Amino acid sequence: MKNLLVRLERIIWAMMRNYMPRWTIFAIDLFIVIIAYTSLWFFRDNVASSPSHHFALKIFVVIIFYAVSAILFKTHHGVVRYSTISDLRRLSFSTLFATLLFEIFSITINGTNLANGHLIQFNLWFPVVLGFVVIAVQLMFRFMVKTVYEGFEKRYDPQKIRAFVLGSDYESVLLANSIKEEKNNPYEPVAFITLNDAQVGRSVGGLPILSARKGLLNLMVHYEVHTLLLYKSQLDSMSKEFYDRCIVEGLELLMVSTFVKHDDTVVQTAPQINKIKIEDLLGRNAIELNKDALEHNFTDKVVLITGAAGSIGSEIAIQVAQFKCRQIILLDQAETPLNDLWLMLKSRNPNNIDIKPIIGNVSSTAKMRQVFECARPHIVFHAAAYKHVPMMEFHPSASVIANVLGTKNVADMAVETGVERFVMISTDKAVNPTNVMGASKRAAEIYIHSLYHKLLEDGVENPTQFVTTRFGNVLGSNGSVVPLFKRQIAAGGPITVTHKDITRYFMTIPEACSLVLEAGCMGHGGEIFIFDMGEAVKIYELAEKMIRLSGKIPGEDIKIVETGLRPGEKLYEELLACDENTLPTHHKKVKIAKVRRYRYSDIAPMIDEMNDIALEHIHPVEVVKRLKELIPEFISQNSPKFEELDKLELYKNVKQLQFIDK
């Protein structure tokens, strides 16, 4: 007998998993109207002094009214098991409309009958009472189907992940309800976790509100939950202590992206639930730049992007492709990533922009001349550069050839072919550089800065507007520590950190490239743009957070090992040299660095000599000597053979001669 009941349950569940046809829902709703009318009819006959007449005629009229109203309000279009407040509201309006029609019809017929002496009459209270009964039974029917279905679903589909929802405000309640209504959502909210003790002990939507301040582990055990759902705004305001408690006690944090619910005329969007990324834990607010205001600057323009296949260059290309450019030139020496970027941009090119990939090296003067003379770009984004500090410390010549000679070639060709704007992507390591890479980027900054002022002094009409952007480390880029840490965590550790106190500024790739586009449009020439990157992040703490995000405990599951500072590396990065100051812009978080001006007549020969030495592959020390002559604030760190150069008297004299007044 028990097996028979179990088999019957499974058959019922299999039937319930199929959606009920619309005509079936329509028929059931009308059947409810018939039952309600019939019940009220006989109830009235049993209590009224004068029995009613014309049953068949009257019920036919009622069915017509309710059928028309149901069709108008589409009450049978929804899925009963997923009925929402919107569905119930529509059902109520449908019943109200049918009741109104029935009442108006009754009043009209009664008035006509009295005038003509006919006997057929309608009770004017009957439509109202009928409406209440119909809506009550129809709501009860939907509630019963929804309840039975959820019961079967929990019994036969137990794979849903039980989860807490952080907070008990309107958005948290909306999230919980939306997740419960979403069939394919893998999560099942079981309770709200709040830091507001005033709400503890209450319940919303059948889910209790629990305190997160104490007994978190006991709550996890009692409710069999290992997941917490939260919003980005909640993550930003979450205290480090609570975050650490959640991770240490094994409570996985999942972030819910913004979602909206519309009426039936718009496709509903379910909440998107994803694992928290390290970008979400930076503790800084992203800089919002107005891309709509940039549109006219790119319309019908030819845009050249050097280093286009890199992490920064490719994102610039993606963002520029949103505008109505005439042509985008993608320049890089790396064939495969350049091809991948080209194919990707072609596949999603809503503005039908002409996109051309060019394989070339910015250090080749002949190649750059060919590119500029053929393409005739209006705007240049110069992102091509070598950027790994230890690698460039081993190869100063390569750093100078790529970062200094490459920038000079592109800048000179920009002037020669009449480019309107030239935007160089620099780095915070160019400020008071302690390594060859940072010094080479500072040398490139000095060259284009002095070149622009030479154009002004020479009275060149409509000179190329040279601007520079400085920012810190970019999360997810090829040179970022984040991909390295991810690989080390995947391998089981250890994570290697050069120093426990080392700090860096971080930003996301899209944010960095939005700044570059903004700078390219707001600059008038000669500016170095910097911006508020928030608080510097300790790399050691970043490693700890990434370990916790992987579901492991730092120091226990995965070790963090200090390896010592690498050649050229310093503990703290700066965005502004100590003897520089800033000017404000229209964006409150974007500023202009007021830097020292160098005479082009002094700089150009030194740049040329340094490039020649690098091209001839003379001993690396000779290349670094020239960098230190050009950049007096370049003091090497953790590079013994280059630190010896800082002790020479030669540079003390040079440092007094290389720049003019600010």
Question: Which keywords apply here?
Answer:
662 residues, alpha/beta, Rossmann fold, 3 domains, 23 helices, 22 strands, elongated
Describe this structure in words.
The protein has a nine-stranded mixed sheet with strand order 10-9-8-11-12-13-18-22-21, sandwiched between helices. Helix 3 runs antiparallel to helix 4 (85-116) and helix 16 packs across helix 20. The protein is elongated. Helix 11 links the parallel strand 8 (302-306) and strand 9. Residues 46-50, 114-119, 260-268 and 652-662 have low confidence and may be disordered. The protein is an alpha/beta fold and 662 residues long. It contains 23 helices and 22 strands. Helices cover 48% and strands 14% of the residues. It folds into three domains: 2-154, no CATH class; 159-276, 3-Layer(aba) Sandwich (Rossmann fold); 295-471 and 524-532 and 575-654, 3-Layer(aba) Sandwich (Rossmann fold), CATH 3.40.50.720.
Proportion of beta-strand residues: 5-15%
Question: By helix and strand content, what is the structural category?
Answer: alpha/beta
Helix share, percent = 40-55%
CATH first level of the largest domain: which class?
Alpha Beta
From the alpha carbons, calculate the radius of gyration and give it in angstroms. Answer: 36 Å
Biggest pleated-sheet summary: 9 strands, mixed
The low-confidence parts are 46-50, 114-119, 260-268, 652-662
CATH topology of the largest domain: Rossmann fold
Largest beta sheet: strand ordering: 10-9-8-11-12-13-18-22-21
Name the overall outline: elongated
Count of folded domains? 3
CATH hierarchy: architecture of the largest domain: 3-Layer(aba) Sandwich
